[in-house]
Design brief:
Blueprint: H1 3-19, H2 25-34, H3 52-66, H4 73-86, H5 95-105
Helix pairs in contact: 1-2, 2-5, 4-5
Protein name: DUF2853 family protein
Pfam families: DUF2853
InterPro entries: DUF2853, Jann4075-like_sf
Length: about 110
C-alpha cells in the first residue's frame, strides 16, 4: 500500500472509532487527494480547533471556495458542531476527516463527483 492509502485507512478508522460511522471510502479518498501534500505534514494534516484563525481558514478556503457555500454564521456553527462531534479534547483532528464531515453535513458530495 502507498503512504496515501495508509493515511486514508487511518482516517477511515478515525471516522469509525471516534464518530461511530461507516465512511464512504470513495468520498474520503477524493477529499484526502484534494488536501494535496498537506496530509504528509504532521502539523498541516491536523486542525487546531482552539485556533480561531485556523477555523476561519477552513471556513474561507474549504467551505466557501471549495464547496461554494455562501458566508454566514451557519458555516462556523457547522465547523463547531463537527469539532464537538469529533471531540474537542481529541488532539488529532485530521483535516481530511473534518472536511469529510463538513462535506456530508452540507450535502456537497457532488463537488467531488
Amino acid at each position: 500500500m502507498s503512504r496515501r492509502d495508509d493515511l486514508i485507512a487511518k482516517y477511515a478508522k478515525d471516522i469509525k472509532d471516534k464518530l461511530g460511522e461507516t465512511p464512504d471510502m470513495d468520498l474520503l479518498t477524493k477529499i484526502t487527494i484534494g488536501c494535496g501534500p498537506s496530509i504528509y505534514n504532521t502539523d498541516a494534516e491536523t486542525i487546531a480547533s482552539s485556533d480561531d484563525s485556523e477555523l476561519d481558514r477552513v471556513r474561507k478556503n474549504y467551505l466557501m471556495k471549495k464547496l461554494g457555500l455562501a458566508d454566514g454564521p451557519q458555516l462556523m456553527e457547522a465547523i463547531n458542531s463537527v469539532i464537538d462531534k469529533y471531540g474537542r479534547s481529541n488532539r488529532s483532528k485530521y483535516r481530511p476527516v473534518i472536511y469529510y464531515m463538513l462535506c456530508k453535513h452540507f450535502g456537497k458530495q457532488s463537488v467531488y463527483g
